[in-house]
Amino acid sequence: MRKADWSRRMVQENVLTLNDLIWPIFLIDGENRREQIPAMPGVERVTVDIALRDAENAARLGITAIAPFPNIEHSMRDDTGSQISNPDNVVNRFTRQIKKEVPNIGIITDAALDPFTSHGHDGILENGLIVNDLSVARIVSGALAQAEAGADIIAPSDMMDGRVGAIREALDAHGFQDVAIMSYAAKFSSAFYGPYREAIGTAGLLKGDKKTYYVDPANSEEAVREAAQDLEEGADMLMVKPGMPYLDVIRRIKDAFGIPTYAYQVSGEYSMIKAAGANGWIDEERAMMESLLAFKRAGCDGILTYFAPRVAEILSGR
Q: Residue ranges for the binding site for Mg(2+)?
């Protein structure tokens, strides 16, 4: 059955489609500006007006959803990440505009505080320690602002205990029963986030590390327990982050719960493929497609990937 293209296709077990693609983008304030991200070749920070044009193209290509992440001025960041609650922050402005101008693409927003805090953590710090319940209250406030702006899915990546249940309760109480929650249920304390932190401007801010609230890379049982807790609190979808180093966790979560399961092919994964491809060490396009197919084989229903526009072009024959 391997002897010809047609026979290989006939017995292929997993297929990557346009429906699997979610595109993370980076937003900045201002107008008509693009900023290159040196650690992520081919990825840019863009202003809302340009992001809208990019979103129109993404929708034409068949990409299902966009996940915006902000890089705001350091002067606007504080210890509590208060700008996440601002209804006019760059993510919420983008969301309102895209719902008017490109309504046929989904918007998935993150309610974590790290792009908005002066210390780069996903929650509120007091005396060098994350304060869980105060952090959850701020995260809920941010999630409500995102829902009011028109977000279709709230995807909290902060890993605070109890935040999924608190977000679900607040959304329902404010009339947003149809806004879904995609929980970053198993987010690991990983070395693969470095380029992302450059992209959102937190690389030089982080005091300490995030091991006190992210999952230990050594632990898969703990990851499954975290997923079970988020499901019990009302998550509609689960995510594993990073992706490739944790294919076993994706498979375990999919098998255990049978719920829509996603992976985030994070910045470090993207940058490694781009760098190796640029140096001629691997075939970049083949490695890109193979890496995404691996997520499907592991049980993913979709992937957040910076490769989404290029992959969509390939899948649609452009």
A: 226
Q: State the catalytic residue, choosing from 210, 241, 254, 274.
A: 241
Determine the topology of domain 5-315 in CATH.
TIM Barrel (3.20.20)
Catalytic residue (one of 3, 99, 100, 187): 187
Domain residue extents for the chain: 5-315
Distance CA 246, CA 239 (A): 11
99 is catalytic: no
Which residues line the annotated binding site? 226
Catalytic annotation present for 241: yes
Q: Which residues, 6+ apart, have CB-to-CB distance to 82 below 8 Å?
A: 116, 138
Q: Give which of 71, 123, 125, 113 is closest to 94, Cα–Cα.
A: 71
Q: Give residue-wise pLDDT tens across range 40-92.
A: 999 999 999 999 999 999 999 999 999 999 999 999 999 999 999 999 999 99
Q: Is the pTM of this model over 0.70?
A: yes
